[in-house]
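Researcher: Please predict.
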Amino acid sequence: MNRQLTQRGRDRKRQLMDFAAHRFADNGYHPTSVAEIVSGMGVGKGVFYWYFSSKEELFLEILREAQHELRKVQQQAIGDEPDPVRRIELGIRASMVWLAEHRHLFHVFQFAAADERFAPALRRGQDVAVGDVVRHVKEAVVLGRVRDTDPQVLAHAILGVTNNLARTFIFERGEDAADVAEDAIAFCLHGLVDA
């Protein structure tokens, strides 16, 4: 639904999305109903349907917005850094911190990956992330900082390592995001940078 919203309307929509994202992460997508969301927010169903045509649309918007926010944080962390290897490092650090601060959204991503209705939207966002990393890897290859290997493979490897370490060490074991980021960077860069 594309409505022109006032600032108050954008704030209300954001509140609904935030509340619903936490409910989806805590209880799962299927058990969480629109009635539960509006009841928890203390609003009527009309408010919900003003912003979203369905629970599915709400979930997709949460997914898109979360991926967009993560990418924005990564881009801000990278800034104008000229060194492509350093950009990869900064992106990994920013990702770990963001994931640790938004644990509930990591659970939303995991559910989306396993559900055929949401997996394509998640993949579209992941394709953008891969494209960002590929650009950095290609530049590093040209500069001789990374060995000449398929940039797509390396980008997927970097993202896979980052996501797996976040899931295992931040979410399951409760370790510090900065420490986990250091381990991810050490692994990725030692596997990428020519000695």
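Model: The first helix runs from residue 7 to 27.
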